Amino acid sequence: MTTPNLPLQGTCRCGDVAVELTAPPLMTAACHCTGCQKMSASAFSLTAMVPPDGFAVTRGETRRGGLGEGQLDHQFCPRCMTWIFTRIAGLDDFVSVRPTMFEDTSWFAPFIETMTQDRLPWAMTPARHSFEAFPAMEDIPALMAEFAESA
Q1: Interatomic CA distance for residues 94 and 51, integer angstroms
Q2: pLDDT by residue (tens digit) across 42-55?
Q3: CB atoms within 10 A of CB 140
């Protein structure tokens, strides 16, 4: 993994919402779950898990999308409906940001891939670790430590 040159600036597709990343990711991932497939209109979604104080919406406002309820707080641009980031209730250690929002994406590669049980047969990633479901919560600290060492 390449460490991004910080700060990183980015926008949604229409540019109404601007974001900034000021801290390096704690880990990167690709998720193959059917929910991510539908929300991204692709084979998988990409995410950079970043410290909450290292990510900010610097222009515009977002609105909740996805299912609009439950523990996954998916935030979208209200105009172009670009999926920008997700907060997970009860997990305050990181925000899951779509890395494709940033002007520079050269640093991004998924370190883990999750929900490979739903993976489309042709959808491959270079992820170092693959999980049929989500990794166990007790495994996340070790994965993040390995990710940090690989940076």
Answers
A1: 5
A2: 999 999 999 999 99
A3: 18
**Is position 83 within any domain?**
yes
Backbone angles phi, psi at 27, to 5 degrees: -175, 160
pTM: 0.94
- CATH code, domain carrying 104: 3.90.1590.10
In-domain check, residue 14? yes
Name the pLDDT band for 17 (thresholds 50, 70, 90): very high
Q: Per-residue confidence at 11, pLDDT binned at 50, 70, 90?
A: very high
In a domain, 59, yes or no: yes
Which residue range forms the structural domain that includes residue 28?
8-150
CB–CB of 97/22 below 8 Å?
no
CA distance 45 to 85: 11
| Beta strands across the sheet bearing 72-76 | 63-64, 72-76, 83-88, 91-97, 45-50, 27-31, 112-114, 129-130
